[in-house]
Specification:
CATH topology: Methane Monooxygenase Hydroxylase, Chain G, domain 1
Radius of gyration: 22 Å
Number of strands: 0
CATH superfamily: Neurotransmitter-gated ion-channel transmembrane domain
Number of domains: 1
Shape: elongated
CATH class: Mainly Alpha
Order of helices and strands: HHHHH
Oligomer: single chain
């Protein structure tokens, strides 16, 4: 349930940074607490238990959601760097020869890219989690 809760951040607006950070950090801390609590309640053994695999993978998914937010945040705030060729276009614009796309249009493009990453994550993360569940449960039921 915590893994699914971490995916809520994919639907939160990219400009709502405090909400997305809070959601990401709280889900990571909750998974950490659950994992350590589970480890303490089970006997110490020298091999990897099924619950260890489950908790580690869930932690990976939750942490990946937090990393996705970091990537989307950086992507959405990326500024357009004016290149040398664009400076030449700006000069010729003053003479009325060419039209130059303003830097704000590139900033809008970076926000569109960030929103696109969120939309892709809304599908890819649950899909990978379902695949993991199928493999995990089939392995431990029939192994």
């Amino acid at each position: 349930m915590i893994v699914v809760l971490s995916w809520v951040s994919f639907w939160v607006d990219i400009d709502a940074v405090p909400a997305r950070i809070s959601l990401g950090v709280l889900t990571v801390l909750t998974m950490t607490t659950q994992s350590s609590g589970t480890r303490l309640s089970l006997p110490m053994v020298s091999y990897v238990k099924a619950i260890d695999v489950w908790m580690a993978t869930c932690m990976l998914f939750v942490f990946a959601s937090l990393l996705e937010f970091a990537y989307v945040n950086v992507l959405s705030r990326r500024k357009h760097v004016v290149k040398k060729s664009e400076k030449l276009e700006e000069i010729s614009l003053k003479n009325g020869e060419q039209k130059v796309t303003p830097a704000s249009a590139h900033l809008t493009d970076s926000k569109k890219q960030a929103r696109r990453v969120d939309k892709i994550s809304r599908v890819v993360c649950p899909l990978f989690f379902v695949i993991f569940n199928l493999v995990y449960w089939l392995y431990y039921i029939y192994a």
